[in-house]
Specification:
mainly beta, 82 residues, 0% helix, two-stranded antiparallel ribbon, two-stranded antiparallel sheet
Length: 82
């Protein structure tokens, strides 16, 4: 996780702008790759998430050994304690 100015962070407050970068190495060829994330609370309940497909950013096919990356920028929702 990063702040919009590129500073790494592990603590985020509600309303803060966040940049999440995800990098994956592909072990087998993938024709229609999708990179995404889900944020859950401590009980495993879904809070929110996003992926390249639902964001309208399709990725090209990839071969084994290639590295794919996805960047997601969003405002952290205000969450209740816990």
């Amino acid at each position: 996780l990063e702040t919009p100015d590129g500073q790494a962070t592990s603590v985020i407050a509600g309303g803060e702008r966040v940049v999440l970068r995800v990098e994956v190495e592909v072990l087998g060829g993938v024709d229609s790759p999708i990179i995404g994330f889900i944020l859950k609370d401590r009980l495993g309940q879904y809070l929110f998430g996003c992926n390249t497909w639902s964001a309208g950013r399709p990725l090209p096919p990839v071969a084994p050994g290639e590295v794919l990356s996805g960047t997601f920028e969003f405002d952290m929702p205000a969450l209740a304690g816990g």
